[in-house]
Amino acid sequence: MSTVETLKRQRHPEKAKNPPNPVLRKPTWIRVKAPTSAAYGETKRLMREHNLHTVCEEAACPNIGECWSHKHATVMILGNICTRACAFCNVATGKPSAVDPMEPANLAISVAEMGMRHLIITSVDRDDLGDGGADQFVKCIQHIRETSPETTIEVLTPDFRNKDGALELVIAAGPDVFNHNLETVARLYPTIRPGARYFHSLKLLDRAKKLDTNVFTKSGIMMGLGEERDEVLQVMDDLRSANVDFLTIGQYLAPTPRHAPIKRFVTPDEFDELKAIGEAKGFLLVASSPLTRSSYHADSDFAALRDARRTKLAGD
């Protein structure tokens, strides 16, 4: 076995047993240019200098060049080793390292140096921690509020399953947006997101809104994993029942041939149609396109969310 193959098996031991899946050719609308800008290099330098991880890198996001060129990054706290093994995710699975006590301060310094207007904080799943990592989210929010009070903060959290009080801690810290992705339709959870439960994630979003009616709630799904149209519409209805404000819909891209295969590439026209349906169902905002991700254009989307809420309240 080659050294490269050995390293791949160490990084994703649970996926190494699976044979590679056939790769569909990417259509023209999903292709992106390699990052080359000076701002991209500066963002990368700051992440390394302050020992920070980003989901942009760990999840092999196709938008990293565009986002980092605008000094917009999604920081992944609590390390880069996840305790779960979702079939779509490129983050390594294994035994995580100890929580870094300097991480909240380092993150706050980076946010201030970059002059970020809107920040997304996400994390790996930390089922090994008693609070699922909730306290680290709280500390990060507090440090950023102290050093960059004008920066709006969005948290993209794990489901905190079986961690009583974890959600309450995060909401009490006062994020501007609470985001938790459903990722896919209920039927596909056993194969795509086996460590999670669809209705638990829905309940988490519903509870977040009830704990703080002013916080914007947000969730997202991926297309191309084998979902049916009526299942996608059911997800929309379920999220609206939980009073979720903002829905993102994007194309699933398999990080490697050993991850869940892409069943199909959804056309831009179909994404536009889903956007129109979501808006008709009552979401304040729907972002739907092949390259849409939770963090894509999040700063401008947050401004649009606030405007949509003001318009709705004025109409009521």
CATH topology: the name is TIM Barrel
Assembly of the depicted chains: single chain
CATH C-level class: Alpha Beta
CATH superfamily: Aldolase class I
Strand content: 5-15%
Q: What's the count of strands?
A: 10
The largest sheet is: 8 strands, mixed
Total domain count: 1
**Helix content range of the residues, please?**
25-40%
Instruction: Please give the alpha-carbon distance between the first and last residues.
Output: 66 Å
Q: What overall form do the CA principal axes indicate?
A: globular
- By CATH, the architecture is named Alpha-Beta Barrel
Number of helices: 12
Summed up:
With 316 residues, the chain is an alpha/beta fold.
Secondary structure elements and their pairing?
Blueprint: H1 3-11, H2 38-49, E1 53-54, H3 55-58, H4 64-69, E2 74-77, E3 81-82, E4 92-93, H5 103-114, E5 118-123, H6 134-147, E6 152-156, H7 166-172, E7 177-179, H8 189-192, H9 198-211, E8 216-223, H10 229-241, E9 246-251, H11 268-280, E10 285-288, H12 298-315
Parallel strand pairs: 2-5, 3-4, 5-6, 6-7, 7-8, 8-9, 9-10
Antiparallel strand pairs: 1-2
